[in-house]
Design brief:
Elements lengths: L2 H32 L4 H6 L5 H4 L1 H10 L9 H26 L5 H30 L5 H30 L1 H21 L13 H9 L4 H18 L3 H7 L4 H29 L2 H18 L10 H28 L6 H20 L2 H33 L10
Length: 407
C-alpha cells in the first residue's frame, strides 16, 4: 500500500474522530444553554468526555479480539464508525423533539450522546492501532502530522462550523449532515481490504496492559512525556482570559483563536510531521519545543509594556503553530514506542498520560496566574516548556525509549 493511500485512509478516520469530539467540546454546552438548561447542567456536560479518558480500559480488548471477517482492525473500525453515524442521526431526531418540548427528552439526548462518545473513543483506539501497524518508521512523522491536522479539522467542523449551521437550519438538518459526513468518511475504510494474515494468539486483555507498564524504561519515558507537555498544559488555559483582559472583543477572540489559531495549528501539524520524518525525531522535538517555549514566555512582553494587542495576536498564532509541531513530534516518538501487536494499548497508554498531564497543568493554572500575575505565569510556563524540550530529546540519546518487542 502506497504512502499516499495510507495517509488518505488515516486522514478520513481521524477526521471522523474529530467530528464528535469537537461537537462535545464546543457545541454541546452552547446547545444545552440555548435549550434552557441550567449552568449546572451545562457544566456537568463535561462528563461526556469521560469515555476518552477511559480509553485505556478499552484498548487491550481492541488488541486482543481481532478475529473479525472484516479484518483485524477494520473489523472494529467499520462497524463502530457506521454505528456512530447512526447515533448522531438519532441525536438529531431527539434534538428536534426536544425543541418541541417533549418531556424527558433531555435525558434521552444525553444518553444518545454518551453512547456516541463511547463508540467514537473505541474507534479511536482501533485507529491508533491501525496507524502503528500501517506506518513504517519513515512514514510516521508525516503520518502523525496528517493525524493531528485531520483531527483538528474534524473538531472545527463538528464544533464551530456546526454551531453556525445550526443557528440557521436547526437540529435535524445540521446533525443529519454531520451523520452524512461520518458515512462519507467511512467510504475509504469500507472499500479498503485489510491484509489479514495469521493473527497470533493474543494474551488476556489485562495482560496486554500490564505488559506495557512492565516494559523496561517505560516509567521514565512516561515521566518525560508528562514533562514535555506540562508547560503547555499550564500556560495555554490562561491565553484566552489574557486576551479578554487586554480588551479584545469576544468576536475578535473567536476569529483569532478559532480562525487564525486553528489554521496555524493545522499548518503546524503538517510541518511538524515533515520535520520529524526528514530531520529526525530529536531535532523536531528540540527545535519545535524550544521555539514554542520562547513564544509561551513572550506572552509576558505586552504585560511589561512591550508591544500591544498586535504583538499578542501574533504570538498566539505562532504559539499555536509551534505547539502543534511539537505535539506531532511527540506523537511520532510515542508511535515508535508502540508494539505492532499491541499498538492500540501501547499508544493509548501514552496518550492517557498526556490527558492527565494536561489536567495536572491546567487545574492550578488560574490560581497561580492570580497569585503571580500573567507575566510571572507565562514566564514559568516558558521555562517548564524549555526544560521538557531539552530533557526528552536528551533522554532519547541515552536510550530511554521503551524497546518494542516487535518490529
Amino acid at each position: 500500500m502506497s504512502t499516499g493511500k495510507k495517509l488518505g485512509l488515516l486522514a478520513t478516520l481521524y477526521l471522523s474522530q474529530g467530528l464528535p469530539y469537537g461537537f462535545f467540546v464546543t457545541a454541546v454546552p452552547v446547545l444545552l444553554r440555548k435549550e434552557g438548561s441550567s449552568l449546572a447542567m451545562v457544566s456537568l456536560s463535561s462528563a461526556l468526555m469521560l469515555p476518552w479518558g477511559l480509553k485505556l480500559l478499552v484498548a487491550p480488548f481492541v488488541d486482543k479480539h481481532r478475529g473479525s471477517a472484516l479484518g483485524p482492525r477494520r473489523g472494529w473500525i467499520l462497524p463502530l464508525q457506521v454505528t456512530t453515524a447512526l447515533c448522531v442521526f438519532a441525536s438529531a431526531l431527539l434534538g428536534e423533539l426536544l425543541g418541541r418540548g417533549g418531556p424527558g427528552l433531555l435525558v434521552a439526548l444525553a444518553g444518545a450522546t454518551v453512547i456516541t462518545a463511547i463508540l467514537a473513543a473505541t474507534q479511536d483506539c482501533a485507529t491508533d492501532g491501525l496507524a502503528v501497524e500501517l506506518l513504517d518508521d519513515k512514514e510516521r512523522g508525516l503520518g502523525n502530522g496528517v493525524q493531528v491536522a485531520a483531527y483538528r479539522l474534524g473538531m472545527i467542523v463538528g464544533g464551530s462550523a456546526l454551531l453556525v449551521v445550526f443557528d440557521v437550519l436547526g437540529w435535524l438538518p445540521t446533525f443529519g449532515a454531520m451523520a452524512a459526513l461520518l458515512l462519507l468518511a467511512t467510504a475509504p475504510i469500507a472499500l479498503w481490504r485489510e491484509p489479514r494474515g495469521v493473527q497470533p494468539a493474543a494474551p488476556a486483555a489485562l495482560s496486554i496492559l500490564v505488559r506495557f507498564f512492565r516494559r523496561p524504561r517505560v516509567w521514565p519515558w512516561l515521566a518525560l512525556i508528562v514533562l514535555y507537555k506540562l508547560g503547555d498544559a499550564y500556560g495555554s488555559p490562561m491565553v484566552k482570559p489574557l486576551l479578554v483582559d487586554r480588551g479584545m472583543s469576544v468576536a475578535d477572540i473567536g476569529l483569532l483563536v478559532g480562525g487564525l489559531g486553528s489554521g496555524a495549528a493545522l499548518v503546524g501539524a503538517l510541518v511538524g510531521g515533515w520535520l520529524a520524518g526528514r530531520a529526525g525525531r530529536r531535532v523536531a522535538l528540540v527545535s519545535a519545543g524550544l521555539v514554542h517555549a520562547l513564544l509561551m514566555a513572550c506572552y509576558a512582553l505586552p504585560l511589561v509594556g512591550v508591544g500591544g494587542t498586535t504583538l499578542l495576536s501574533t504570538l498566539m498564532v505562532l504559539e499555536h503553530l509551534t505547539g502543534s509541531m511539537a505535539t506531532v513530534a511527540l506523537f511520532t516518538v510515542m508511535m515508535d514506542a508502540s508494539d505492532e501487536s499491541s499498538g492500540a494499548t501501547d499508544y493509548t497508554a501514552q496518550a492517557s498520560v498526556i490527558v492527565w498531564a494536561t489536567f495536572a497543568g491546567a487545574a492550578p493554572s488560574g490560581f497561580l496566574a492570580e497569585a503571580l500575575g500573567y507575566a510571572g505565569h507565562f514566564l514559568i510556563a516558558g521555562v517548564v516548556c524549555a526544560v521538557g524540550a531539552i530533557a526528552l530529546p536528551y533522554a532519547l540519546t541515552r536510550g530511554v525509549l521503551p524497546a518494542r518487542t516487535t518490529s
